[in-house]
Amino acid sequence: MSTQKNPIISIRNLTKSYQIGGPQEKYKRLTESITDSVLHPRKWLSSRTCTQETFFALRDVSFDVYPGEVIGIIGRNGAGKSTLLKILSGITYPTGGEIELYGRVGSLLEVGTGFHPELTGRENIYFNGSILGMTRREIEDKFDEITKFAGVEEFLDTPVKRYSSGMAVRLGFAVAAHLDPEILLVDEVLAVGDAGFQKKCLGKMGEVAKEGRTVLFVSHNMSAITTMCKRVILIDKGELLEDGTSDEVVSHYLNTSLGTYGKTEWKDIDTAPGINGFKLISVEILNENRSPIKLVDIEKPVIVRIGYKTLIPNLKFRIAILFYCGATCAFISVEPTESVRKHNGLYYSEVTIYKNIFSERNYAINISVFSSAGAKIRFCHVENAIIFQTYDKMTGNSARGDYVQTMDGILQPKLPWITKYINGD
Amino acid sequence: MSNSDNRYHRIIRPPGKGINLNIPEIWFYRELLFYLAWREVKIRYKQTIMGAGWAILQPSFSMIVFTLFFGKLAKMPSDGIPYPLFSYAGLILWIYFSSTLTHGSTSMVNNAQMLTKVYFPRIFFPSAPALSGIFDYFISLIVLFILMMYYGFIPSYTILILPIVLIGTILCATGLGCILSSICVKYRDVQFALPFFIQLAMFICPVIYPVSIAPQNVQWVLYLNPMTGFLNAHRACLLGLDSFDLFGLIIAIIISILIFVIGVVYLKKTEHYFADLI
After folding, report:
1. How many CB atoms lie within 10 A of CB B185?
2. What's the mean pLDDT in A169-188?
């Protein structure tokens, strides 16, 4: 962090609170407002102060960002990371505190905002670019670069509704990647697209950072965060918990239960991950009684349950679950066959991991759904769908027996040991 | 800090009492307003056979129906102008006004995705339909000129007033659009009430009848509605009528400016909760 320069972003005691359970919870019908005020004047008046509960999306957050810094912002879902970016970009207002900005802010909270399926690729590039704050000249100058990056040169005059979802996403990212404001806010956009494209995006982000621009980058992808950012800020329950070098903060985050979540649900089917008629609905870990857990006792079996919806009958695919420790893949479990899901609707697929396989650490689960026999189709790829922590109760029944020192290794399978006396020499 | 950085110096604070119109920001984003309007025009007629021809068909069919029922059957007076021409000249401005209101009022709710994911001046949401509607208006003007030729009407110098009438109507429609779209973020009732209201409103505006059918002493009430002044002036300036009602136009412009200012202020006052509530 350079201290000679003045900060480009200065955030002081930033607070954002919402009233929940009160009249602001959701929009009301006008008649409701009127009948409420007429029928229950006292309740209506007092509801403004009494029945509401204040929820803090951000609470007293202060930090400075210096020009050229690339800062990662991490934290659990709902910690307040996205709210912070939304306030910085001007979409929503804070309820307290102050931010001073010394530069043009470009925000990339979603890929392809304002894309219209009826418009062609070319038209959408112009519109999307202008929505993100580019001028017509800037878009014209970068037009060829953008189409090349997205790889859609031949489809420029095709309506976007005829694009595959991968193509649309690539186009959206390509436009945004060619923004060049002094301050760039990026929210988890790399979670889209296939692995190859994600690498390309990361590369582009790295370039942007090298050009000396200031980037605030929200992500759950810890390896992306550590490769791109020197400084990382950890937010939890709306409060700034830690601000330091990426190695320090990320390892603290991963090694405590802070970064764990045993269940992820996609409630809105439109935004749920999945293409080609497949939608991922939930991923969760359960104990042998099928109750949800977050902490895994390594002496007990664990069930990973994946909920998904098929929108087309007779979809044939295979689900793979990848267990990661940091950047290392610990092991992969795949469905033994590519089975056909005959019906439209909700399915659960479960896999049981035997007891005494895991070691004591944090594991992240990536989900991949695809078919490789015959037509190669990708249905879904989600990284860090859930992150869970394991522990050993040290009863002597785990793989370690009565050994109490640290055990290395990303797995800790309990294996039979036999010691035999052969002869007396 | 270099000067170029100071140019973009911005402070974000909780919404206060005052109103900051932030004209420089609107100027900075000006291209986007045209893109938004252009996008609406593009999308509106995609996958239609008639395309922009609908801009002509809608007022033409309305004109035919009104001519049959009001002109021929009810013998509605039309200040000496052939009834088809009279009603068509009123209908095209009315259709511009009403479709701007309809699209304007739902402009934020229908673009909620944009509203919650990117920032640009919120006033662009209701302003874009006002601009894109002008495109349809000019197309429908072609038929008016054909009708005028048919009935032997020649445009005169009075057509120079047309831009003033249009700007006045745009201000009025945009101002109302600002108010309605802001309310619609909180109360979706607007979506249902407005089409119904617009249908009724056509009959309190001199679209298909002249103001002169109202008794002299109550005509001033009609002029409180700015569209009365605009519709009269619109018809008079296009058809080159001598009976140009300048006073009515001035009143209409003053009321429209007032509506526009109130609309913008209301939108600015409430915009801080749009993204949280929508």
Report:
1. 24
2. 84
